[in-house]
Amino acid sequence: MLWAALLALQGVCVGAAHGMQHYPAAWGHYDVCKSQIYTEEGLAWDYMACQPEAVDMTKYLRVTIDPPNITCGDPPETYCALENPYMCNNECDASTEELAHPPELMFDFEGRNPTTFWQSTSWKKYPKPLQVNLTLSWNKTIELTDDIILTFESGRPEQMVLEKSLDQGRTWTPYQFYATDCLDAFTMEPKTVNELTQRTLLDIICTEDYSRGYVWKNDKTVRFEIKDRFALFAGPRLHNMASLYGQLDTTKTLRDFFTITDLRIRLLKPATGATMVDENNLSRYFYAISDIKVQGRCKCNLHANTCVYDKGRLGCECEHNTTGPDCSRCKRHYHGRAWSVGSYLPIPKGTANICEYYSCKEIAMICCGDTTDIAVEIPLKCSSGTVKVRTGTIGPLQKHPEHQPQKETTRVCDNAMLRCQNGGTCHHHQRCHCSAGFTGVLCERARCSGGECDGQSSGQDPLLLLLLQPMILVFLLH
Ligand SMILES: [Ca+2]
């Protein structure tokens, strides 16, 4: 399954790479996360910002139609052509495969005639609005890299809204409004994407370019123009991707604009082809979509060059010691410095901003970083040269002489830093007197006998305690 998905992704990559030939190779595709280099100390890794290739994202989505019974064919229905009310040879029957028009036909391979398409019921409840929501969900943040293109088999809707979500469908914001008359439909002045500037790139516009009926009946597509927006920074043929990447790096709102987890197509009014709706022949009015194109890549925060589709779910194959579906946090034990998104700059390799392993430089200190592992309050010397105390104070080592290792070596406990656990009390910095039911140098363990423990576990990380105890023994021997 996993391999099949990987192969599928790679297969699509070839197509995508072919389609993006006009990107100058010098700008790089950020397709390598690390490479081995020779240094004075031997082989080492050189890390680079990396991202997965842009692919056809419709292979990995889930589609939801609302209302759920709005797909045609149950009961069977016959439709007439919008242009000719006497041409009624379009039959929809959900129980017959050849005559059914389920949603998945918007995402199948188009190439052979006749086209395959999803179709709604007709506008038989006119004048009640015929409205349908099509929701495309990825359950993963993705970044759009090319225009979203809807191809209609019916006339293009007179009113529709394309919306996006960045939080798996909890909240929605419009991407673009489409209408034959923007003022009438949405009280918005009609605009085209060509009127946008770098300053107004994030403006949400209403366009009349994709809603005209009769005259333009050969053009059946509705677009959301991603590339025209990219071109505002990268130039008309996207020849200056460095400029775009620079902007994406520094402007989070710009990056977020092209990032989605879900898309929603709100079909609000079908094509009528005229000012008046013919109430005697409502089977002319319906929605039908043969194809939806969404090109994009998994958002991996520039920490992965591969995205895997496994068990119906997309996930980044994280590098740079990061983890999570979007590589948005450091791996356990790699909190040597705070997680950070990779950077496209400097072109062409970018900056990886890897998560670093923490290392113990002072034997008297437990190091470092992954404070979620630390259940006792002790100074933590981190590779960044700071001392962390779990209570949240952070300060440079030299400014806290009381934290110096040599002063700590004879201490097992004190009232401020090395606290006896579970109600134990500290005696002369030498040892903890544990309360009933607990044991261990810091009374951190429940006392057990015959397999039964009579105290509550303090919930500490056993790995940490393994590390901690020999160190405290070392202090005592000194
Ligand atoms: Ca199709």
UniProtKB/TrEMBL annotation:
The keyword Signal belongs to this UniProt entry's keyword annotation: yes
Disulfide bonds: C434-C443
Domain EGF-like: from-to ranges: 409-444
Alphabetic keyword roster: Disulfide bond, EGF-like domain, Glycoprotein, Laminin EGF-like domain, Repeat, Signal
CDD domains reported in the protein's UniProt record: EGF_CA, EGF_Lam
Span of domain Laminin N-terminal: 46-297
GO BP, sorted A to Z: animal organ morphogenesis; axonogenesis; tissue development
Taxonomic superkingdom: Eukaryota
SMART domains xref list: EGF_Lam, LamNT
InterPro entries: EGF, Laminin/Netrin_ECM, Laminin_N, LE_dom, LMN_ATRN_NET-like_EGF
Protein name in UniProt: Vav 3 guanine nucleotide exchange factor b
